[in-house]
Structure formats: structure tokens, C-alpha cells
UniProtKB/TrEMBL annotation:
Coiled-coil ranges from the UniProt annotation: none
A Gene Ontology term for the protein's cellular component: outer membrane-bounded periplasmic space
GO biological process entries: proteolysis
Domain Peptidoglycan binding-like: 37-92, 101-155
One term of GO molecular function: serine-type endopeptidase activity
Protein name: Peptidoglycan hydrolase-like protein with peptidoglycan-binding domain
Stretch forming the signal peptide: 1-23
Record keywords, A-Z: Hydrolase, Metal-binding, Metalloprotease, Periplasm, Protease, Signal, Zinc
Keyword Endoplasmic reticulum part of the UniProt annotation: no
InterPro entries xref list: LD-transpeptidase_YkuD-like, Peptidase_M74, Peptidoglycan-bd-like, PGBD-like_sf, PGBDSf, Zn_M74/Hedgehog-like
Length: 318
């Protein structure tokens, strides 16, 4: 508990400072722990390998990753809890530049591909194309443009939101006129993609993705939350599996498929064990089953709230 409180205070110092040293006033290292998945986890796995704790970079924070994190923390004199918070991230990330090679460069390439929607080969070679991508990101983030990846660039890059791969089994819906407000934390994206692939295997169509967040966070019109990259809306499933092409429904609609929507909720929860804080959706049967939570104005969509072990906002702590 003491370790978590110390880490939280460190995050709050970054989040709340009136004169942040970073381009984004709310930029910080997203905490990753057992059950998370996505690009940030893959980057952590590459960085652990860089430090001699060899792992397969599968983007899944499983037992082997927890063991490696604990070993790394012990070696660095950090609190040993298996959780990658700001202090552990800070010890993991090295300064690298053009000419470098190896797992740390792979971590960088994974992050750039996710956060800037690029297709760099994840080959561990810091060549001219990677330098260009780094400089472009630094310009995008409003930080010093030198092509060198140091602590500030790493922190802004890890904090930056990712964009889901629609080919995973998603379709883009825009119910509130917010455009492609599909950005979310790398863990939220990775977990949604996993759930979509699991649900696609049921043969009941794609998952309609409503609003998630803007690229750099902030309030989204029509939503009371969705400001920190951890809230994602999806639509319920129809009996005709046409949720991506037909009209929007509620849980009371004749074409509402409760069994398929239940399977969707279960896929979302199983994709992120311990990292789904709640799902707002007003189907009373799913509420009675403990799968969703009642909340006003959530008859026609499922509001998935992901969480982290440490977060500046207590609404998003697991």
C-alpha cells in the first residue's frame, strides 16, 4: 500500500503541476500490471529484454512479465510489486538515438506505430526512418525536436493515446458528431481489440465502436467523461447481427440479442482481467448477473470503463 501511495503521489505531481515540464500538462507513464495488454505492455517486454530479462513481446502482461518486472525492480532497488508505474518506467527507458539497435529500439518502434499510426518495421534498428518518426512525434508533442529519445520523449510517447485496428472486428460509429473520437490508452485499445477478435469468432458480427476519446484527451461533447482515454462506448448486438449496418437499438428493442450482448460483455471482461472497473448498460438481466451496472441514459450503448492500478483520478483506479 505504501508503494502504491508513493507512486500515486508521483503521478499526481506530474498531473497537477501548474508548470509541467512536458508538452502535455497531463502526460505521465500509464501504470501497467498483470492483466493488461497492448502496445505499452509490448514496449515494457522489449525494455525488460534490453535490461537482460528476456521475454516474448506478445503484448500480454502475464505471469512471466510480472516475474521479470519484479526481478528488474529488485535489481534497481525499486519497490518490488510487479507493477510498472512511473518509477519503474523511468528506470526502464534508456536514452537512444540514430545508430542504436536492439530491444529498446523495438520498444520505441512499437510505441511509434501505435501512437502515430505508423508501419515501421519492428526490427530494432534506429535508422533514418525512425529518426524522422521521432522528430515528427517531438514536433507533434511540442517538445524539443532533436531525434534523440530521452526521458521526456519516452514519457510523452507512452502517455499518448493509440487508435484501434478496425480490422480486429470493429466498425466505426459516430453517434454524437464527434468524428473519429476513437483514441484511448494503449491498454484500452489492446484490450478492445482482443475482445473484438474473441467476439468475431462467435460469428455474430462486428462490434460497433462509438466514442472513446480524442487523440490527446479532453472533454468530448455529449459525454460526461471520456476525457482520460479509459472510457469506451460500444453498441449492443442485434439478433440479425447487423449492428454495424442497421439502426441503433436499446435493450428493450425487439431486435436486441441479449445472449450475444452477454457474450460481448464477457469477451470485454476476459480480455482485461482486473482492468475493467465497470460497464454501464441498463439491461436488468445483465445487471442481475453482475455483468453491467445501471446508469441513466445507457439503454442504447455499453460504456466500458477501464482502469489502472495507479491513476491521478480515483474513478480510474482498479
Amino acid at each position: 500500500m505504501r508503494r502504491v501511495l508513493v507512486t500515486l503521489l508521483a503521478v499526481l505531481a506530474v498531473f497537477c503541476s501548474g508548470t509541467p515540464a512536458l508538452a502535455y500538462a497531463n502526460a505521465f507513464f500509464h501504470t501497467q500490471s498483470a492483466g493488461n495488454r497492448g502496445a505499452d505492455v509490448a514496449a515494457i517486454q522489449h525494455l525488460l529484454t534490453h535490461h537482460g530479462h528476456t521475454l516474448t513481446a506478445d503484448g500480454v502482461f502475464g505471469p512471466a512479465t510480472t516475474t521479470a518486472v519484479r526481478a528488474f525492480q529488485s535489481a534497481k532497488g525499486l519497490g518490488v510489486d510487479g507493477i510498472v508505474g512511473p518509477a519503474t518506467w523511468g528506470a526502464l527507458v534508456p536514452q537512444i538515438r540514430q545508430g542504436a539497435s536492439g530491444p529498446a529500439v523495438r520498444a520505441l518502434q512499437v510505441e511509434l506505430n501505435e501512437k502515430r499510426r505508423l508501419s515501421l518495421p519492428v526490427n530494432g534498428v534506429f535508422d533514418a526512418s525512425v529518426t524522422t518518426a521521432v522528430r515528427d512525434f517531438q514536433s507533434h508533442a511540442g517538445i524539443g525536436v532533436d531525434g534523440v529519445v530521452g526521458p521526456t520523449t519516452w514519457r510523452n510517447l507512452v502517455w499518448h493515446y493509440g487508435y484501434p485496428d478496425m480490422a480486429a472486428g470493429l466498425c466505426d460509429k459516430d453517434p454524437d458528431g464527434n468524428g473519429t473520437a476513437n483514441w484511448a490508452t494503449a491498454a484500452s485499445v489492446g484490450q478492445l481489440e482482443r475482445a473484438a477478435r474473441t467476439f468475431a469468432a462467435t460469428g455474430q458480427g462486428q462490434i460497433p465502436l462509438g466514442d472513446a476519446g480524442f487523440e490527446h484527451g479532453g472533454t468530448i461533447p455529449g459525454h460526461a467523461s471520456h476525457a482520460v482515454g479509459l472510457d469506451i462506448d460500444v453498441w449492443p448486438i442485434r439478433t440479425d447481427n447487423a449492428q454495424c449496418t442497421a439502426g441503433r437499438i436499446t435493450w428493450q428493442s425487439a431486435t436486441y440479442d441479449r445472449a450475444a450482448t452477454r457474450a460481448l460483455v464477457q469477451a470485454i471482461r476476459s480480455a482485461a482481467s482486473g482492468h475493467v472497473r465497470l460497464i454501464f448498460f441498463n439491461d436488468p438481466v445483465l445487471i442481475d448477473e453482475g455483468l453491467t451496472t445501471q446508469y441513466a441514459n445507457h439503454d442504447n450503448h455499453l460504456h466500458v470503463r477501464n482502469c489502472e492500478r495507479v491513476h491521478p483520478n480515483s474513478l480510474y483506479t482498479c
